[in-house]
Amino acid sequence: MHVSSQQFKRKAAEALANPQLHKAMSNLRARMVTGRAQSILELDNFETIREAAKQTRDFALAHLDYLLEEFERNATARGAQVHWAETGEEVNQLVLDIARRNQVRKIIKSKSMLGEETGLNHFLEAAGIEVRETDLGEYIIQEADETPSHIIAPAIHRTSEQIADLFHEKHKLPRKTDIGEMTREARMILRPHFLNADMGISGANFLVAQTGSSMIVTNEGNGRMTTTLPRVHVAIAGIEKVLPTLEDVSFILRLLTRSATGQSISNYLTFTTGPKQLGDQDGPEQFHIIIVDAGRTRVLGSDLRAALRCIRCGACMNHCPVYQNIGGHPYGWVYPGPIGAVLTPAYVGLENAVDLPNAATLCNQCGVVCPVKIPLPDLMRTLREKQVERGLRPWSERVGLRLWGWTARHPTVYAWITRIAARLGRWAGGSARLIRHLPGGSGWTGERDLPSPEGRTFRELYTARAKRHS
Amino acid sequence: MNARDNVLGRIRAALGRSRPLTETEAAPVRALLRENRRGPLPTMNWEPVSRFRERCLSLSSTVDDVHDLQQVPAVVKRYLTINRLPSACVCSPQFAGLDWAGVGLTVEMRPSTGEDAVGITGTYCAIAETGTLMLLSGASNPMKNSLLPETHIAVVSESRILRCMEDGWDLLRKEHGPLPRQVAFVSGPSRTADIEMTLVIGIHGPYRVHVILVGA
What we know:
The complex is a heterodimer of chains A (470) and B (216). Helices cover 51% and strands 11% of the residues of chain A. With 470 residues, chain A is α/β, with parallel strands linked by helices. In chain A, helix 3 (28-39) crosses helix 13 (246-261) and helix 10 crosses helix 11. The longest helix of chain A has 19 residues, at 411-429. The model of chain A has no long low-confidence stretch (mean pLDDT 95). Chain B has 216 residues and is α/β, with parallel strands linked by helices. Chain B has helices at residues 3-14, 23-35, 48-58, 72-82, 165-175, and strands at residues 62-66, 88-91, 106-108, 118-121, 125-127, 132-136, 151-157, 161-162, 182-186, 191-192, 200-201, 208-214. In chain B, the strands form three sheets. In chain B, strands 1-12-7-4-2-3 form a six-stranded parallel beta sheet, with helices on both faces. In chain B, 47% of the residues are buried. In chain B, strand 5 (125-127) and strand 6 form a beta hairpin. The mean pLDDT of chain B is 96.
């Protein structure tokens, strides 16, 4: 996908001024935040499970090569074809080659964020193959030619009215506004595509090393169809998705579904091992699994490794006060919110996403809710430090910090400057004691007044007090 | 060098070693892969059958009870009549021996084509913790029948209601050995909240899941 993270500030400002977006996102807190809070109460040992999940993910990452080879061995033994891709371009080319070898004309796709990373749909369409997203949210944004704004609710930025207009335009059917009826219409439109597609593409929530299985978590049933109906199934998965055993997947799922949507369990957990077997009533003739690096090994070897624990639940963005107000698009790539503020610079380069690690107050709501304990604020701070080290911050900020550093090392100068600033501030505050305009600080005073200083610095007051008492 | 070797090489470099794990280093991983050790489980001090029933209802499934398998056709007939659903069904071959015609149902033992309104399936086992059906693909289980029709009727034997998913894996390993092509854990009718976070029951998969519990 095209990276537009460098326009973060402009797009965030536009998002803040967009009432449609705020209407569309207004249910996020009630449903996702409250839903998670209630559903984790079902687990009397939630924190124990969370710590174990963190350790299991860390263990898997520390033995990644061994587990991936084990996965490959077991998947291959069951007749799956395992491919490896170093880059997003290689993923796209591998999928296209499989499609061409099998005379594929139409593909149905179940949600894959990795597919969004590589721009898979546009690549396949440019090669003349029809691709249908089938997750309702993904289908909506595909029809609208947009990108997802949330990793599990991709069309969360659209109001039902906007979707009603879109369906009316695309489906050429009477406009419906009832959400249930719109959903039924999407089922009716997509059903024939499920039945006559030649190939299905899915992502993978996890790969199971022990059995060579790939598994997906869905609610709509499109994932089951994608992995069962077409004659060829291709699953694409990042290297970090592997877990040792079925038991590991099972206990982590208790966290994943609750953290994601507040559900005790998602409707469909599908474990797929190899293609159709002799005697099977259904299933694809070929099952391909593409294991993908695309920047992940770079993260594995860096001080951002903890980000690879991510199980893509979306809790960090659901709970982020910044995301809640601007939505996902300003982040400019596949992953929005706090995890996006870390993964985007890590995958596409810090110089291409300078503002993202700064688009947070470091309030740590994300860190508190993360089911695998990714220290997101720490990772954002690490990226901020890297920005400064690599000189990626604007010159005004760099000069400012340099001056600050110099004065901080010269206490006498520091004392004089703060004395002058305190008096100037007192004067600027006037009788109301509020500064309404601050040169160079309109980001603050544009929305609110700054209480003015009292006119004397802490040092002056301290010295005066010491004199009084002596 | 191919992509596989490059990726594995980069993983090893990132993990600070230039070679695969030695036999000694790999031993704990191999043990882990063999042992099927469970992660921490929540306290599950409920009675499995009533828990299963309660969770099914909370997932918007419906539940019926029968004493033995022979009563299943009559209960299916009643369910379809009450809900004004068609009386033509597709069904897993395992129930070919039941007297469907006797209650006035047209039941075909074949995979759904996508046009069928009602699919009847067995259930490998059920999970009480979450009200979940564990379905296996195979010669006698068309996965399509629990997926394509708007109504899915699942026959569940009470004696095969287990506590949790981990119990399901153990049973499967004991009875089957290797995994079938697909294991699907189904928890209620399909749903989506992709439009304005508003929950809608029924999207691509079934709109209704009716569970018939066959008692001991």
